[in-house]
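User: hey, got a sec? need Coenzyme A transferase folded
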Amino acid sequence: MNASAVESVTRAEYCVIACAEAWRGDGEILASPMGAVPSVGARLARLTFAPDLLLTDGEATLVGPDGEPEGWLPYRRHLALVTGGRRHVMMGASQIDRFGNQNISCIGDWEQPTRQLLGVRGAPVNTLNNPVSYWIPRHSPRVFVERVDMICGVGHDSARAAGPSATRFHRIPRVVSDLGVFDFATPDRSMRLASLHPGVTVDQVREATGFALTAPADVPYTRGPSPAELALIREVIDPARTRDREVRA
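Assistant: Yep! Here you go:
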């Protein structure tokens, strides 16, 4: 991979790197990426700095980065990993607020919503039993809201209000969007801008966020892929460029 290729890194490829970094240091844990960019990121992590990461085909088989079967993961065993905290999910969010509460169920009042979405599904169990990060391919005030219309994934304030039983295994390592990376490294565990993707400004992020966002005086840029990582993304993991379908820039 030559220098010019590295210089032409796309926004989608920065997002892949940011998603991959969510699993850094997790060890032997089941990765459950939801979406094209997180899936490419999880496979990249497995091929580089997270060799112990477990990947599945989304059904009952453990697979390698090439998709070849490596083991059997029946549903009962999958649930045991979830409830035991041995899984790190990267979910989507129709809405997410400053404390990391996530909504994928409905928009508007619960009794008469303006839009019906996926439903609560496994979001509460995920967030209370194992690490959950989020991938938001379209950062906007409609997604990053002051308060979600319904809590599906449990945020820091909601877990804290529920007491020790809810906070024991609760962890939201990061939120990745097409504009930057966010964490909750603040005194009240509210969302903080951790890094900007190159070409994005803090003002752009603030304008696209529906709540007052904490940001340090100097926000770093999201790290770019190394030549080896870029070659893996483009030539091995995602030659069909599925990542570009989720990120426009």
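Quick note: The chain has one domain: 9-241. Let me know if you need anything else on Coenzyme A transferase.
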